[in-house]
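Appendix B: complex inputs.
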Amino acid sequence: MEPVLIGELLAGLMFFGIIGFLLLGFPVAFTLAGVSLGFGAVGMFFGVFDPSNFGSLPNRYIGFMTNEVLVAVPLFIFMGVMLERSQIAEQLLLTMGKLFGNLRGGLGISVILVGAMLAASTGVVGATVVTMGLISLPAMLRAGYDPKLATGVICASGTLGQIIPPSTVLIFMGDMLSGINSQVQMAKGNFAPVPVSVGDLFAGALLPGLLLVGVYLAYVVFKAITDPESCPATPVPPEEKKYLLREFMVALVPPLLLILAVLGSILGGIATPTEAASVGAVGAMILAALRWRLSFSILHQTVVSTATITSMVFVILLGASVFSVVFRLMGGDNLVHEFLSNLPGGRIGAVAVVMAIMFLLGFILDTFEIIFIVIPITAPVLLALDVDPVWLGVLVGVNLQTSFLTPPFGFALFYLRGVAPADLPTSAIYKGILPFVLLQIVAIAILFAFPGIVTWLPRLIAG
Amino acid sequence: QGNITWRMVTTWPKNFPGLGVGAQRLADRITAASGGRLTVQVYSAGELVPPLQSLDAVIDGTAEMSHGAAYYWQNKSPALSFFTGVPYGMTSRELTAWMRYMGGQEIWDEIYDQFGVQGFLSGDTGTQAGGWFKNELTGVDSVKGLRFRTPGLGGRVWEKLGATVTNMAAGEIFQALQSGTLDAAEFVGPYNDLALGFYQVCKNYYFPSFVEPGLATELVVDKKKYQALPDDLQAIIRDVSQAEYDQVASDFYANDPRALQTLVNDHGVNIRQFPEEILKTGATAAAEIMTSLRESDDPLVKKTAESFIDAFRIVRTRSKTTDGAYVTARETYFEI
Amino acid sequence: MRFLSGTAALISRMNWLIGQIFSWLSLGIVLVCFVVVVLRYLFATSFVWLQDLYIWLNGAMFTAVAGFALLKDDHVRVDIFYRPARIRTRALVDLVGVVFFLLPFTWIVYAYSLPFVLRSWSYFEGSANVGGMAGLYILKSFIIAFAVLLALQGIAMLCRSILVLGGRVDLVPPSMAYPVKPADAAAEAIEGVH
Ligand code: NA
Ligand code: NA
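Resulting structure:
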């Protein structure tokens, strides 16, 4: 066999081998790296891989450690964790619940709206699901909600943080896509490509994020009309209504101002996402202080959470680098290129196939692993086929949002299970999420058919 | 001995006019001249390692060659700036005179010896453009607080003039100008700058770059592996590099003026000269920087600066009495 | 067995301490970056070294804390099968994973980074940006620290696996005890991830 073919064969096997080994349950970052090293050793044996290529690892690592764009990640995580500790979400959920309680489906609507708002202030998915699971789930169950609807709404709304900016996933995607885009365009002789930045992805994801909010709301309204039993109203006693509006303003206005300041300055091109994130983080500390929630203990919890979450994500990136080095240098790039370039349906077919693969991977992996593995090897081909990078990034973001929701391994489900009452069957959570996964697929189809929903805002801002 | 393949990492994007193209052509020429006995495979910026880790990749054996500019590695030794070009320093011709006949290459070898690599000049952009500015410059006051992308010692000069200086990779500059993160930027010259689209955001294009009077690129090779090659392959690498130094310069000399015409005629760019006050204050700043390098505690930095300044004092006399005087005369009197 | 228990406890204690200390760098990132923003937007001035500083703090933080995160079991697992599995099965998976995945990975990172880091020390490498931070060699050393701290925590996990498989669950240090019920695992995960 030709060495080139052996290399490509090994690269292909490695991709599937990794998925197999991941099922063992050892941490993803190290499984990725370890299995890749194993395949690298086999490649060495066949003379199709040169171990000196691992010398590029420290160079790549120091590249991540000195990357200006990626610093936005810990900053936004800090902001999110701090906001969570200042219990803004709790207050919003309680007052919003009272505000909409008189409506059928009102509690569901309030969960979606609060989810959207928290999403716009942070990208921390788990915390949102947990908070809503602790506060709104018991309220909805008490009110007689169908547990399937209640859990579905909470999981889906809780994951909006991934797509509604600011989002840590979009930061990584922006960093990767901007590099790949400029390489691809220059290779094609276009030296002034329309650049892609994290800010562009944020702008591109705003309307699709709102579209999802709209789709979820429409579903709850639909349920309220067709199946009133599933989401009864929860009348609020008049004495509680008295100061409701004021209570609501106190809960709503400060975080809303923070959101407007952070997102506005990024989308308005006034500040880079990193700069805006630091302002957001300081703003979150101020909000916490105003609520007398900025104690040493809370600060301590915040820094520890921020550091470990950041480390967890970056370590996946470090592990995935080993995969990239081995995969690329054994000829995997060619393999992917040949596969994606020769699909029926051309560019659209290629994007559809990549989306389908990512969706399937979403059943067992979560967002970060998928983008760190799949984007570096497929995006160069897709962008070379003239796929709009911002559209691609946002589409991937919405697609992978479902990875949080798809059983058996969906983080949102897992978190909610952890805080849901013990007598609530897990199957209710799994069944409850299905309509929302379908809605998610509908949203992806809409974005596929009308790319303008993604590209309109970034272009408007760029002028 | 069988055929061998070497990996060349570059700091340039693939097919980038002048520089990236030059790196690829250099690789192809080595492959062709050796009849395939030494095949050079090019990895453009970021393909194997991040662009600014290219030299480290060679030192570590991840690649056998790197194509870039010595001043990117000024954090390894400040002396390396001299082998690319320094503010108010030598033009390309003057630089090769120093390198080939006045001790430059020997000092460079001594510096790179510490890292087990060997450098060859491998390309040259000629004197660069001064940069793109959103607003017209009136004097040193108009520089204060200006957010300006310009790397290396040139950046330090502009810092002394009052600008807020940052460095960013080629692909990020346009976005930063557009979003207002930058008020001004310089990259290379019309040939590259047209490609990068800066004209869409800035209309004032200033000349000349007194901070980058010439920019030499380098080919760095793993010294041990280089010396283990048969003599003819060594000669091929050396001579192809020398030929490419000239070839890349020709590319820029032919295409810079064409690109400039396009910028002016098709895109309405205003060509401007820096106000005298900026040139003058910039010269003072550049002299301070060069002096501080000559007084460095690091003996190799000191030695490089001394050798450079000694050579510079000699070669500039020829440029002044002959080349400069000729160009002035031609541009004053001769029309055709 | 007691020796294994002691080793695991000692390593975990060290990573815990390092995690506690280096987590505070996240506050440092926030504050330094905020200062840069204020200087830039309110005073139209900036310092390259300050811009380097908050970026480097992130690099130092996520490498230094990686071992601590492993101690807390915060690194994402695909736990379809792992989570509901018996403790002995989980111990076996961890044993295999440490030996075949984690230790080879940290070894490769260590072996290929050591010359890279030593070289950086040999000339006290600073920032690639003119006017940037001094001490890039210190930041580069964090790659070694990353590999070593992870490998050590891996060894602690190895000790734990042997203790569990050897029937001495009681000797597993409390800081790294396996959650008994899946529900506990969930509750624990909520503390950290995402
Ligand atoms: Na978000
Ligand atoms: Na330049």
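Chain A touches chain B through 26 residues (CB under 8 Å).
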